[in-house]
């Protein structure tokens, strides 16, 4: 009998040492996981899958901005309808659900910087800033306060644990939905705490799960716009946040010749071709540079958009130490563009230089540069300089 008791005790110990699907010891019911629920199909399926697996799931939705306008607008996240949808899904799943008012934090840390970035002639990515600050900083702290072992999101990115025990970020299996570019600023501590149950799926499989669970959001379209920019009218948002931001100036060519006037550089982006406001050229003109000090919109031929070297600031690095001679990486310069081969050199502080092997067109300060080793995210930062292949612009 004593031998049987010892055997039973060993089996119980082995079961307690077994890791569940989220990487924790013990039964899923003993693991609390906070799910960031935006009201969309991805986060809703994430919550449903974890509930189905027996986890102690708590849903949290953030109210990020005044949704008076967006309540009637489809395709935005964290608006009134989306909060309502997240609440309905939580009720269907039988899980606790909380709505947190983060409007002031979101305005200060995301919207204000969005406006200032455009005024400086940059092209910002507020979704990255939101992940970097509000979602993966403030919300993670709230998840810990609720006693969660981890926080799960509906991002299409993979998380694996290396032989060194550290968690790593990898591209999502679905290349068309991969969101690793938007998560480059995630720190090692945050990666350790986060989980991404959809990273190994494609969107079609996620939709199938939503239909299987009978979720009210199963047919809901994906969000397309920046959540706080109704119908893409970002100039209206900037004028509301920064009255007087529309300052007139000159439209000049790459040689400095005045071709016309504009009523605000915030209306222009690098690479823009249509709606520039000048004519008479024998070849198509593109916006190749914005000079907020001189209030100039600089236009030129398509080849003037090509960039050979990029300066990157505020580097977040989760890879191995970069040697003095640099390392070869695949660099993703825009979320909609494939990665390009480049050599990365780390400068003093959190700055880096990225030398492209083949010129890339339309690189804009304010965008992100994300570095990969194969499918693994090594880190990334914010573009603060784009050195043109055109000597007239490179010297400017």
TrEMBL record:
It catalyses: S-sulfanyl-L-cysteinyl-[protein] + uridine(34) in tRNA + AH2 + ATP = 2-thiouridine(34) in tRNA + L-cysteinyl-[protein] + A + AMP + diphosphate + H(+). InterPro entries: MnmA-like, MnmA-like_C, MnmA-like_central, MnmA-like_central_sf, Rossmann-like_a/b/a_fold. This is tRNA-specific 2-thiouridylase MnmA. It is found in: Cytoplasm. It is an enzyme of class 2 (transferase). Belongs to the MnmA/TRMU family. Residues 177-179 are annotated as: Interaction with tRNA. Residues 247-300 form the tRNA-specific 2-thiouridylase MnmA-like central domain. SUPFAM superfamilies: Adenine nucleotide alpha hydrolases-like. Its main location: cytoplasm. Its EC number is 2.8.1.13. It comes from Kordiimonas pumila. Catalyzes the 2-thiolation of uridine at the wobble position (U34) of tRNA, leading to the formation of s(2)U34. It comes from the Bacteria.
């Amino acid at each position: 009998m004593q031998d049987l008791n010892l055997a039973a005790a060993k089996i119980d110990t082995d079961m307690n040492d077994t890791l569940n699907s989220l990487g924790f010891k013990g039964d899923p019911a003993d693991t609390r996981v906070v799910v960031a629920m935006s009201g969309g199909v991805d986060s809703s399926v994430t919550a449903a899958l974890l509930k189905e697996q027996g986890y102690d799931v708590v849903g949290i939705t953030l109210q990020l901005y005044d949704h008076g306008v967006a309540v009637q607008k489809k395709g935005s996240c964290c608006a009134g309808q989306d909060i309502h949808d997240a609440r309905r899904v939580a009720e269907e799943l039988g899980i606790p659900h909380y709505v947190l008012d983060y409007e002031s934090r979101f305005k200060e840390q995301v919207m204000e910087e969005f406006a200032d970035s455009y005024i400086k002639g940059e092209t910002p990515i507020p979704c990255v800033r939101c992940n970097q600050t509000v979602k993966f900083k403030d919300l993670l702290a709230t998840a810990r306060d609720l006693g969660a072992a981890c926080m799960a999101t509906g991002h299409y990115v993979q998380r694996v644990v290396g032989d060194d025990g550290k968690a790593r970020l990898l591209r999502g299996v679905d290349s068309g939905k991969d969101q690793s570019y938007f998560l480059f600023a995630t720190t090692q501590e945050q990666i350790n705490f986060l989980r991404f149950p959809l990273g190994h799926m494609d969107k079609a499989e996620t939709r199938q799960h939503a239909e299987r669970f009978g979720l009210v959001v199963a047919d809901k379209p994906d969000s397309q716009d920046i959540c706080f920019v109704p119908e893409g009218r970002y100039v209206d948002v900037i004028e509301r946040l920064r009255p007087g931001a529309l300052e007139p100036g000159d439209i000049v060519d790459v040689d400095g010749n005045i071709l016309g006037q504009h009523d605000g550089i915030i209306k222009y982006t690098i690479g823009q071709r249509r709606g520039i406001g000048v004519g008479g050229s024998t070849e198509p003109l593109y916006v190749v540079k914005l000079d907020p000090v001189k209030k100039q919109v600089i236009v030129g031929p398509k080849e003037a958009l090509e960039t050979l070297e990029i300066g990157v600031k505020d580097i977040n690095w989760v890879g191995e130490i970069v040697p003095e001679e640099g390392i070869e990486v695949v660099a993703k310069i825009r979320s909609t563009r494939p990665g390009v081969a480049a050599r990365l050199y780390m400068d003093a502080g959190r700055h880096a230089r990225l030398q492209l092997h083949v010129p890339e067109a339309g690189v804009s300060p304010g965008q992100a540069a994300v570095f990969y080793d194969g499918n693994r995210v090594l880190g990334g930062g914010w573009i603060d300089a784009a050195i043109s292949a055109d000597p007239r612009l490179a010297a400017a």
